[in-house]
Specification:
Gyrase A, domain 2, six-stranded mixed β-sheet, seven-stranded mixed β-sheet, binds magnesium ion, binds guanosine-5'-triphosphate, Four Helix Bundle (Hemerythrin (Met), subunit A)
């Protein structure tokens, strides 16, 4: 567990041209350290909490003024980290900010790791882990709705649901343990007759609702979409059309695209990460083959596939093999080049496409692109039940995995209770389920996982 006893400092604003730059200091010595480099314009005997002071930052060695700044002091526990925090708003510029930071570290502050301020807010109990994660979501949100969901989570939407669930689970566990501790009473019999139903109703059912609500994360995380298809089918042309810019090279030479070309756009507010890939065909060229392997890998990992098929040429084996990748996945067939006459036997072979929604477009003229965008949106939202009305908490992938594990344990406990399996085992399974719920809020979690969560943050956050 990282220490919260030392004083940390970091530049909290992006380095580059900006109006102001902020240096943040947190820890027991933050005020004392800041006072060594700060001269307020109006002399004060002691800086008060939650006030803003105008003054100068100077180099204590040379006594020279470095910048005119605003300094704020937020005494513990009423601060971002719950520790004493000082923020120095200086003019922006890397050299300037770095100079102030260097002086602070020279005076004993330690350079903060990415996310360490938020990690301290978590370790000091101001926020739970789901709220800390929402900080990253807020910063990364690429849609209005994603922003709103992150804002709900930072206010504790998941935390509250977890508290309620854990309370129920603790209550059920207490009953199971009472049955073990007082075998002479009739508690066990009662638990076995009603416990399974209680577990189902109070634990598994609300967990199922939460697991379903995970689908709404598309508004925050976006969706990985891959354009795949045979060489020359018009994949790169489609990418350019969707983005309204020339991002990928288009030629009539088969095998033009080799690397994966990635971009982001949005459809109806849903952020879409889209990848154009190398066209599929049998080749001997080493570079092209590597491109095709990469394309197949991306196809396998995609959340949504757009299979591009050139309608002006007969469907062949390469098209068919690729379509198999669409099994059990969200996928659309994009029939391209409808401005050209269809290949003579296209209609006969087109039967094999019937299990997909087929959209007809011309990447060249732009015909059908709006329909395609609509279809992309509908496909993404197809399994997105209107969960927000019942539950405002939208678990992320990590939460979802923990919920699935908890559900599994609670299900085992309910079966064990019914099957006369010893109550010790029922209690053990309930406790495991509780621990998995605790992973979501961060109560029961490995330091390693914690570090990996906070390492996604930027410096100074
Ligand atoms: N007539 C017509 N030509 C198109 C259309 N879309 C693409 N093309 C042409 O088809 C050729 C191949 O287009 P690309 O977008 O490079 O195809 P690709 O699938 O990315 O090709 P590779 O990267 O080689 O796999 C180019 O000459 C495009 O101008 C279309 O809708 N209609
Ligand atoms: Mg291409």
């Amino acid at each position: 567990m990282p220490s919260t006893e030392d004083t940390i400092a970091a530049i909290a604003t992006p380095v580059g041209q900006a109006g102001i730059g902020i240096i943040r200091i947190s820890g027991p010595d933050s005020l004392e350290t800041a006072e060594k480099i700060f001269k307020p314009k109006t002399p004060h005997t002691a800086l008060k909490s939650h006030r803003l002071y105008m003054g100068y930052v100077y180099d204590p060695d040379s006594g020279k003024v470095i910048d005119e700044v605003l300094l704020s002091y937020m005494a513990a526990p009423n601060s971002y980290t719950r520790e004493d925090v000082v923020e120095i708003n200086s003019h922006s510029g890397y050299t300037l900010l770095f100079k102030i930071l260097t002086i602070l570290t020279g005076l004993g502050a330690r350079l903060a790791r990415p996310g360490e301020f938020t990690q301290r807010a978590f370790l000091n109990g101001r926020i739970d882990l789901s709220q800390a994660e929402a900080v990253v979501d807020l910063m990364n949100a690429r849609s209005e709705r994603g922003l709103a969901l992150a804002a709900q989570q930072i206010q504790g939407a998941i935390k509250r649901d977890m508290l309620a669930l854990r309370k129920e689970a603790v209550h059920i566990l207490a009953n199971a343990e009472a049955a073990i501790d007082f075998p002479e009473e009739d508690i066990e019999h009662l638990f076995r007759s009603e416990g399974a139903e209680t577990i189902q109703k109070q634990l598994i059912h609300p967990i199922d609702i939460l697991i379903k609500a995970h689908a709404e994360r598309v508004w925050v995380d976006g969706i990985n979409t891959v354009i795949a298809g045979r060489v020359n089918s018009g994949k790169s042309s489609l990418l350019n059309r969707l983005l309204n810019e020339t991002k990928a090279i288009v030629t009539d030479i088969p095998g033009t695209t080799r690397d994966v070309i990635e971009a982001t756009f949005n459809v109806g507010g849903i952020p879409i990460r889209i990848m154009d890939t190398a066209g599929i065909r049998k080749v001997n060229d080493t570079v092209e083959k590597m491109g095709i392997d990469l394309a197949l890998q991306k196809t396998a990992e995609a959340d949504l596939l757009l299979f591009v098929i050139d309608r002006s040429r007969p469907i062949n084996r390469d098209d068919m093999d690729l379509l198999e990748q669409g099994e059990n996945k969200k996928a659309l067939v994009v029939m391209n080049k409808i401005d050209l006459p269809p290949a003579p036997d296209f209609a006969e072979k087109a039967d094999s496409l019937s299990r997909f929604s087929v959209l007809e477009i011309s990447a060249l003229t732009g015909e059908g692109i709006d329909h395609l965008k609509e279809a992309i949106k509908d496909t993404i939202l197809s399994d997105n039940a209107q969960t927000s009305a019942t539950s405002r908490a939208v678990p992320n992938l990590r939460h979802r995995q923990a919920l699935l594990k908890a559900r599994d344990q609670f299900l085992c406990a309910s079966k064990s209770a019914r099957k006369n399996i010893p109550m010790e085992i029922v209690a053990f399974e309930l406790r495991n389920g509780l621990d998995h719920l605790g992973e979501i809020t961060g109560e029961t979690i490995d330091d390693e996982i914690l570090d990996s969560i906070f390492s996604q943050f930027c410096m100074g956050k």
